[in-house]
Structure formats: C-alpha cells, structure tokens
Write a structure and sequence with these properties.
about 100 residues, alpha+beta, Alpha-Beta Plaits, four-stranded antiparallel β-sheet, about 35% helix
Length: about 100
C-alpha cells in the first residue's frame, strides 16, 4: 500500500468547487483547504503506478491549476528495509558508512 500527500492549487474563487469535485471523485481524501486556493489531499494505491494515475486525474480536473506530490509513503519499502535490518545483525547501509 502506498499513500501520498498532494498539494492542490486552484483560484480563491473556485476552492469550494474544486474541494467538492475532489471529495466526490472517489480518488482521494481532502484534509485541508484555505481561502487562497490551497488544498491538501491524500491518495492511496496498491503501487506507485496507481498513485500516479490518480495524481494525473487530479491534475486534469477543471479549475485545478497545479497538483504536486508533497510526501510519499510505501509500506512495501518499509517492510523490505525492516527485514534487511532484522536479518543482518550488523547491517549498516553503505551511505551511512564513514
């Protein structure tokens, strides 16, 4: 499961319209909006490809000026990293070696 946070920008006079469209789209959850046209949403997907498809759908919505990824979390990457750490007692990633 992947979860990403996206910042959506619209004009101040269209923010309530875009929030309504996002909520009814079924592709995201709306968490924040302000009167200047900024909206924070999250999208979920089984993989990055599904998330990117949803992001493109948001970007293509009427009155959306921009929709940019702010944060991404991948459960599979975390699980893989934890397994590597647990199975190798002295595992230190190369980038942390001095």
């Amino acid at each position: 499961m992947n979860v990403s946070s996206v910042v959506v920008k619209t004009s101040a006079d269209r923010v309530h319209h875009v929030v309504g469209a996002l909520r009814s789209s079924g592709i995201c959850e709306v968490h924040f909006q302000d009167d200047t046209g900024r909206i924070v949403i999250t999208i979920e997907g089984k993989d990055i490809e599904e998330e990117m498809q949803k992001l493109k759908q948001v970007q293509a919505m009427p009155d959306v000026i921009a929709a940019d990824l702010a944060y991404a979390y991948s459960e599979d990457e975390l699980t893989d990293a934890m397994e590597r750490i647990m199975t190798k007692s002295n595992f230190v990633p190369d980038r942390l070696k001095g």
